[in-house]
Design goal:
binds heme C; single chain; elongated; Four Helix Bundle (Hemerythrin (Met), subunit A); 6 helices; mainly alpha
């Protein structure tokens, strides 16, 4: 009985030993994973910037209505997109400069915590200047960002609900 067990184990070990069929199987799996990876969605820098543009505007409208809860949400969205830019667009040389918005974003966030409209407007202006400073440094100076005028999102109420 014991001998039979030894033989069975030996056979199963032998059949599992790294043979060419196993290698081919692994190679197939790696190939299919690589294909999946190359086909998976990766946001472009221009796309994420358009996203930043929308939240930059919404942040301003929220601040205008002293809707600090919404402003806090919008500044966090901006932070998140900056993190995504670092994560997904690190192959773009320009992204090395993205860190310059961190200070201004933190300052806007502080003015939201302080619920201070004047401070908010000043810091928002600095943030906007920083956007343009980076566009200039990266030779995208023709993308000029400014303080929003009018109201771009008529399907959203920016007034505080309570
Ligand atoms: C790395 C420095 C950098 C910073 C900081 C930066 N941008 Fe950009 N921005 C770029 C680059 C580079 C592009 C061009 C991306 C592309 O299309 O490939 C761009 C493009 C844009 C565009 C054009 C998008 C389009 O396709 O129409 C807008 C709008 C924009 N940025 C808004 C902003 C705003 C608002 C801020 C500040 C909150 C900001 N950016 C901060 C580098 C920066």
């Amino acid at each position: 009985m014991k001998a039979l067990l030894v033989v069975l184990i030996a056979i199963s070990l032998f059949s599992c030993s790294p043979g060419s069929s196993n290698e081919a199987l692994l190679k197939n799996q790696i190939d299919s994973l690589q294909t999946k990876l190359s086909e998976s969605y990766k946001p472009e820098l221009g796309e994420l910037m358009t996203n930043i543009q929308a939240h930059h505007a919404k942040l301003w409208y929220a601040g205008q209505y002293q809707n600090w809860k919404l402003a806090d949400y919008e500044i966090k969205e901006l932070q998140e997109i900056v993190e995504n830019i670092k994560k997904y667009n690190s192959d773009r040389n320009e992204v090395k400069l993205i860190g310059m918005v961190q200070g201004p974003l933190t300052q806007v966030s502080n003015s939201i915590q302080n619920r201070n409209s004047k401070q908010f407007e000043d810091n928002f202006t600095t943030l906007t200047k920083t956007c343009n400073a980076c566009h200039l440094a990266t030779k995208y100076e023709f993308n000029v960002v400014k303080i929003p005028e009018g109201q771009m999102f008529s399907n959203q109420d920016f007034k505080p609900s309570n």
